[in-house]
């Protein structure tokens, strides 16, 4: 959005003073209000955390030059073919004094940036493969990275990988002044002209109909009334493994899109993509136990030590998305959505092989029906494949703002999952 559109957005937000002020602030900082900001405006408290964190990452104190930060954003977005983010940060890269030659592709960039490609690839698709060796490769030899630079680069990569999930999950397409852009529309179903051959919109995918909100409310109430079930560690691991195996059976019918040249030029090893954690070699990549390395107890302090204040920014953002609630679900009020939100968050981590030892994974199958799990998996692991059918046929009784909230949780849980693996690798290298 540009200056001619600003009065229009102020007018329609006149009864949302907090959102209005955030939009004005975003406009003054960037001379535009992008579609991401507009959609996140459904949740102004979260938007404030997000904008503060992104501003700090891209324009605040930190070891990396500003143009490097935007180029890393382009690299990250390229892994998921997210032209929207790539176009935005190509412009910012030039505005920050970046060399236009770099925009021809990795071979035109300094070796220091090219050395980041392997970490970018693994973090985007299979973060469990990261090891201290990858950190060592960045910090040794000519064109080496300092640990502080590595930390900022890792957080930038995770931020923009996860933002790709949000952009695609909400159906954001290139803006009107970008190649292939058009005026914003409010949902994927309006934006995406792609439909499946059967044109199905009956709420059924993967051979299973979607349960209604009333059924979901009954299940959440039952979980709340029963309280935490006493189970052994062996039983909790058994349930985790069961859901993990079931998740590997969920596939998307959508094909991976063929990247256009302007995206492909930034991507090395473009065929490398997500594979189910359940199919890895268990001996070399065991389940990540959150009790052994958690965000709260370990990663938070490491992030703050190497990149002051970023851990606090991220922690605020994670907590805001996880705890955000208006106590509604569809047309129902006074709803405790804790169990539903927790199941979404922990299921995303499960897709990355991360187990929360204090969680009963049996609740995942009670609260997340197969269509929703398929949507979560697609948006989290290969957002570039999301189709109109997958968006339209999930959470059909939810308000649009509630679907946006689910996508915010996908963004944050995914970023936290990537960071747990990456920061553990940094910690292992340091010790």
From TrEMBL:
InterPro entries: AhpD-like, Sestrin
Subcellular location: Cytoplasm
Biased amino acid composition, Polar residues: 184-204
Superkingdom of origin: Eukaryota
Keywords associated with the record: Cytoplasm
One Pfam family, short name: PA26
Lyase in keyword set: no
Region feature (Disordered): 181-209
Major site of localization recorded for this protein: cytoplasm
Transmembrane portions of the chain: none
Family per record: Belongs to the sestrin family.
Protein's recorded name: Sestrin-3
Lineage: Eukaryota, Metazoa, Spiralia, Lophotrochozoa, Mollusca
């Amino acid at each position: 959005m540009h200056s001619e559109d600003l009065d229009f957005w102020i007018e329609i937000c006149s009864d949302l003073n907090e959102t209005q002020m955030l939009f004005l602030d975003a406009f003054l900082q960037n001379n535009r209000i992008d579609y991401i900001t507009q959609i996140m405006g459904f949740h102004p408290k979260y938007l404030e955390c997000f904008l503060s964190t992104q501003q700090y990452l891209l324009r605040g104190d930190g070891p990396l030059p500003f143009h490097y930060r935007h180029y890393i954003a382009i690299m990250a977005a390229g892994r998921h073919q997210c032209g929207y983010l790539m176009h935005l940060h190509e412009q910012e890269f030039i505005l920050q004094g970046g060399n236009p030659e770099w925009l021809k592709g990795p071979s035109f960039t300094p070796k220091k940036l090219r050395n980041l490609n392997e970490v970018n690839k693994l973090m985007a698709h299979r973060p469990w493969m990261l090891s201290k060796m990858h950190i060592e490769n960045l910090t040794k030899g000519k064109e080496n990275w300092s640990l502080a630079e590595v930390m900022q680069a890792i957080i930038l990569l995770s931020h923009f990988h996860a933002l790709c999930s949000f952009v695609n999950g909400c159906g954001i397409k290139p803006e009107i002044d970008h190649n292939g852009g058009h005026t914003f529309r409010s949902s994927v179903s309006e934006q995406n002209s792609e439909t499946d051959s059967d044109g199905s919109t009956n709420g059924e995918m993967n051979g299973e109909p979607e349960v209604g909100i009333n059924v979901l409310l009954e299940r959440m109430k039952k979980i709340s009334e029963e309280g935490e079930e006493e189970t052994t560690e062996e039983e909790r691991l058994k349930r985790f493994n069961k859901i993990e195996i079931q998740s590997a059976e969920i596939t998307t019918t959508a094909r991976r899109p063929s990247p256009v040249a302007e995206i492909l030029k930034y991507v090395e090893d473009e065929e490398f993509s997500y594979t189910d954690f359940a199919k890895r070699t268990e001996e070399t990549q065991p389940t990540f136990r959150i009790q052994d390395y958690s965000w709260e107890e370990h990663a938070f302090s490491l992030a703050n030590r190497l990149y002051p204040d970023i851990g606090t920014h991220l922690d605020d953002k994670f907590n805001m998305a996880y705890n955000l609630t208006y106590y509604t679900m569809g047309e129902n009020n006074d709803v405790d959505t804790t169990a539903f939100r927790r199941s979404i968050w922990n299921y995303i981590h499960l897709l990355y092989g991360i187990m929360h030892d204090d969680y009963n994974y049996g609740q995942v199958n009670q609260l997340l029906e197969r269509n929703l799990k398929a949507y979560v998996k697609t948006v989290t692991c290969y957002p570039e494949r999301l189709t109109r059918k997958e968006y339209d046929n999930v959470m059909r009784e939810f308000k649009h703002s509630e679907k946006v909230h689910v996508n915010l949780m996908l963004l944050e849980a995914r970023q936290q999952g990537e960071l747990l693996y990456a920061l553990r690798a940094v910690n292992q290298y340091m010790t």
